C-alpha cells in the first residue's frame, strides 16, 4: 500500500514537471519578448542586483531613452530615481515597468531598489 502511494506521488511530480517544461517552451520567458533597441535600456532585477552589476546607465540629454525594468526574481523589487522622478512601485515576479528617461539637465542621478540597499547605481546624463 505504501509503495503504491509513493509511486503515485513520484508519477505526479514527473507529470507536473513535464507540463511545466512544455509550458516554458511554448511561452518563453518575458525577457525574450521585450522589444529592445539602441534607444532603450533593459534592467533585469534578479539575485538582488540590476543586470548582475547595478550598471551605470548613460543617457544623452534632450534625447528620451526608454527604460524597461523587469523583475525575474522571486521577491518584490522596485526601481526609484528620485532625481528623475521615476518610481516603478512594487514589481512582482515576471512583472515589468516601462518608462522614459528624459532630462535637459546633465548630471549624475542615483537609482535604487527600496527593498534591497545593495541594488544601487547611477544614471549619467550628458
Describe this structure in words.
It contains two helices and nine strands. The chain has 126 residues and is α/β, with parallel strands linked by helices. A four-stranded mixed beta sheet has the order 2-1-4-7, with no helix packed on it. Strands 3-9-8 form a three-stranded mixed beta sheet, with no helix packed on it. Strand 1 and strand 2 form a beta hairpin. The longest helix is centred in the first third of the chain and has 25 residues, at 2-26. It is elongated. Mean pLDDT is 83; it is low at 31-36.
Assembly annotation: single chain
Structural class: alpha/beta
Tell me what portion of residues adopts beta-strand conformation: 25-35%
Query: So what's the overall shape?
Result: elongated
**Helicity, in percent?**
10-25%
Order of helices and strands: HHEEEEEEEEE
Physical arrangement of strands within the biggest beta sheet: 2-1-4-7
Report the strand count: 9
Amino acid at each position: 500500500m505504501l509503495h503504491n502511494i509513493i509511486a503515485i506521488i513520484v508519477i505526479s511530480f514527473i507529470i507536473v514537471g513535464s507540463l511545466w517544461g512544455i509550458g516554458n517552451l511554448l511561452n518563453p520567458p518575458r525577457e525574450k519578448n521585450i522589444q529592445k533597441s539602441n534607444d532603450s535600456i533593459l534592467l533585469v532585477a534578479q539575485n538582488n542586483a540590476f543586470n548582475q552589476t547595478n550598471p551605470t546607465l548613460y543617457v544623452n540629454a534632450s534625447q528620451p531613452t526608454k527604460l524597461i525594468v523587469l523583475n525575474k526574481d522571486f521577491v518584490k523589487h522596485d526601481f526609484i530615481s528620485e532625481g528623475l522622478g521615476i518610481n516603478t512601485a512594487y514589481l512582482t515576479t515576471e512583472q515589468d515597468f516601462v518608462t522614459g528617461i528624459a532630462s535637459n539637465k546633465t548630471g549624475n542621478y542615483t537609482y535604487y531598489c527600496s527593498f534591497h540597499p545593495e541594488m544601487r547605481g547611477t544614471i549619467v546624463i550628458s
